[in-house]
Amino acid sequence: MDFDWTPEQLGFRATVRRFLAEHLPPNWETVAHGPASEVQSEFADVFCRKLAEAGLLVPHWPARWGGRDADAWTAFILAEEMWMAGEPRGGQYMNVNWIGPTLMRFGSEDQQQRYIPQMAGGATIWCQGFSEPEAGSDLASLRTRAEKHGADYRINGQKIWTSYAGYADTCFLLARTSPGKNGISIFLVPMDTPGITVREIPSVIGEGDIHEVFFDDVEVPESAMLGIEGQAWEISRASLALERVGIPRFALASSSLARAVAGLQREGRFGAGAVEQAARAHAACEAARLYSYSIIDQRVHQLPTGPEASAARYATVMAERLVAEFVVEHLPQALAGGDPLLQAHHQRAIVAGVASGAAEVQLNIIATDFLKLPREPR
Amino acid sequence: MDFQLSSDQASIIDAVDRLVQRFKDKPIDAHGFVLTGEALEREIEEGGYWDIARIPELGPVVAAYAVQRLAHSPFTAELALSMLVRPHLPGHPIGEWPRPLAVVENGRPGRFVATAKTLIIIDGDSIGLAQPAADDVEAVESLFAYPMGRLKRELAVQTLSADEARELRKWLRVALAAEACGLIQAAIDSTVEHISVRKQFGRPLAAFQALRHRMAECAVLAGGLRWLALRAAATGSDGDAALAAFQAQEAGTRVGYETHQMLGAMGMTLEHPLHLWTYRLKALLSELGGRGGQAQAVALHCFGKL
Questions:
Q1: DSSP-assigned states of every residue in A221-233
Q2: Which candidate in A5, A284, A286, B210 could, as Cys together with A9 as Cys, close a disulfide (CB 3.0–4.6 Å)?
Q3: ipTM above 0.85?
Q4: Which residues 346-365 of A have a C-beta within 8 angstroms of B?
């Protein structure tokens, strides 16, 4: 058991930091005010292509797909540094973390050739068409349907709270092809397909973040289906397992806490009440960090990842909440134009317990699969 | 970064687990607040487990691991200070201060004080070491599920330098976190067992979401603490130790309340073993300055200054 980084890992972290220092603009604080805002999305587009050129976008991907077969630690160190800096990759993290690897595992040769090189080059953004007005945590009840018409599928329905839909080139779409839990399939749908309408929903997360997406007689060929009919549940479970600890939100929470504490120290206001709250938030951030590391360690040792991934995710939710509360109580001016980075963190922190599966769903998983408690009656 | 135990480390932990397994049940006729484990202590002595932290291939992280597992037993003995603090006591020769150890913090009664051979005496910012005679200490009755004792008179104390005191506080924090971690896990396991079989309104208590979610939150807190305590033992960093001790007292407060609440009236009895872990936890919550004290240490070591 060893809690130190290897010299190679330290070197890689330093490389990422150098890249960030060289490529984040002097006005980054004002750019980083909303992960899907127009200004940050345009910046992310350029930034991700440079990351790809430097071999820092998908180092953990197979060499065949533009990576260098680096291990899961490399990917996580990269993600930690990006999140600490305010995640300048924008919506690109979805491709890097789970959409790309999911296509590598379940995609057809044509799908892989069409989409993966674009992702590896940082040249495309995806959105995930999961939630619907009547199907949030309860994905099994989704209604968007895809009906066979000759060689094509015709898609009708509505997705909601879809991140990055305004900029996305392609949608990773869940749609019903037959009744029941096993009647859901996945389609890879270009967002410029006729019949798709995107409407932004104003949100507390920030400009341009979430959307409604309407599908009106959208026709896609059979070749747009990922896997086979009814395989969505299996594929989604595999994807969400990658997603759950793929986003080191604790890293941004931790750097935001340090920034807030430094602000209080400069003003001579880091007193008794703030000290205890800061310790509580810091302990929660570090617990979430180590929890997430333990999952990465399992991956590196090729051990199965179980409900601990949900525990890591929930630990991160607790950390996010404590840091956000700390700033609200002790540095409220940060949310009133005083500190754009802390404001951006606060706006993101509110998503922590909702995105990638609600926190309560994680608690259910922990109760059933980790504590082995009897299930609730249905 | 590697969170897996080596084969040597895993062998030791397996042996500790087998030992704990033999001391896993509270005797049916034991109804006191305190349940001491003299036989468990003898087995640890005979197995040479006190010295785990001094063996290079094992080290403090495996000692912390072992303390966590041993604290899971309903039987208690002075384990954590002997395994994690004693190897770092300054003096002559290092590590040869006799065990058991106990802490007297600002004159208050402390765990194992009445039977300790070495006392760590904390007086404000000052820390000293002393070897009490039998008549210098006495046992006191308490609600805590440890044998508690106090000093009867002032002792001749070997006062530590500021650096030595800082080093000692760090390992006291690691020991506190490791022990609390085992107690919390035992309380959770005991409660999980109860709410899985106890039925009300026609179904197990654990089938009610109000309880499932709170229990799951307790499990997340316990898991986070476990990693913080192991990291603190592995790195020997002041900041890591302060964070681990803070989280031990934070999680201990929450888990102590939740587990008793979920056991209902059963948790009020001395027949059920829950109190053996939760009332030990209560003893730990105020140690080393409590959460306020750990928070000050976190501020100093993690944030640089106040």
A1: EGGGEESSTT-HH
A2: A5
A3: yes
A4: 360, 362-364
